[in-house]
Amino acid sequence: MNVEVSSGQNRTIQERPDSIWRITWEVNLYLALALGIAVLGLIPLISRSVLQQNDGATELVYLVGNSPHREDKVIAWEKAQPGVDKFACERRGEELWARWSYHGSTPTNAINGTPIAMRKFGYELSGMRGMRYVPIKHDEFDQVKHVLTDPIILATSLLSTQLGLGFIGWWRIRASARKGKPLPALFAGPVGRSLRYGILAGLGLFAFGWMFSMGVKSVLGHFPPSPWDATKAMPSVTRVMLLIFGGFGAPIAEEIFFRGYVFGVFKRSGFIATGIIISAAMFAMAHFSDIYNIPAIFVFGVTMAWVYHRTGSLAASMTAHAINNCFAILLLVLG
Predict the structure, then answer these.
(1) At what angle do helices 294-311 and 272-285 cross, to 10 degrees?
(2) Domain boundary assignment for the chain
(3) What are the pLDDT tens digits along the chain (335 aa)?
(4) What is the CATH T-level fold of the domain 56-137, as seen in this structure?
């Protein structure tokens, strides 16, 4: 674009056009930022969930001298304390060995309150020694499954991802407009035509996805592992959240980012075919956890970018995205 500047004499400044590599670098940078926002929102919840899944035991030796044997009372008291799954103790001469087994975090109140309780039961407690923690290992698959089926983690995961993509996408679209380099309009096409395209594309994508899954199954001899296998173990509230956020929230946020922003930047610079391919590739890689379905997700991305380009409205790609996701989620939940 040529800009005329007058400073004693006319001279022309040639603005450097955006290159494909420059645009690709920019959109991937903002994708990383959007996903980073999602991860930051999940770290505390996932850490807490993993810690709560861990079972452990604490062992401690009390120096009780020739105190009377009242272990039955100690055992009864300990088992009544919150957080203690199992308790065992054994008299060893002038020592009393104790072991607390628990799920999740250490029941510190029970352990710290034990000396007071022992004195009430008549023990002459002169000290303690040898405290140690004994972790009890769990199957890693079970831990992952628990994280995926936890309704709070699932809702937070979907919500934080959608907020990250939606916010970053909308921010970059508005920023481009403020700089005088607006992206293509998001909802310029006729509503009726956009919805017709969206419905047909959504049904077609769902049919293609089902055939792709059958094809993978025929090659492998079984359905490939997927993070969505955990839907079978999900409680009802988790399934409802999955349908709401995955079926309706994701199509809005992801279309704003991948088609409205990413594809829009390429289209503004005239790289329509390249924009369709790169935005679809980024869309597929953002779903990296479902690695076996990445080729199908890439096709989804190409289709939805083309639908948006063809109709001039994100309403078309959002509709297609929502129809495919809702049918796919219902199939998972009800199957």
Answers:
(1) 140
(2) 20-49+142-334, 56-137
(3) 444 334 444 433 344 567 899 999 999 999 999 999 888 877 766 666 555 566 778 899 999 998 889 999 999 999 888 888 889 999 998 999 999 888 766 777 888 899 999 999 999 888 888 888 876 655 555 555 555 556 666 677 778 889 999 999 999 999 999 999 999 999 998 999 999 999 999 999 999 999 998 998 898 888 776 666 666 667 777 778 778 888 899 999 999 999 999 999 999 999 999 999 999 999 999 988 778 889 999 999 999 999 999 999 999 999 999 999 999 888 877 76
(4) Alpha-Beta Plaits (3.30.70)
10-14 and 2-6 beta bridge pairing: antiparallel
Burial label for 127, CB within 10 Å (0-12, 13-18, 19+), is exposed
pTM of this prediction exceeds 0.85 = no
**Contact present, 329 and 242 (Cβ < 8 Å):** yes
For 149, phi then psi, to 5°, come to -95, -5
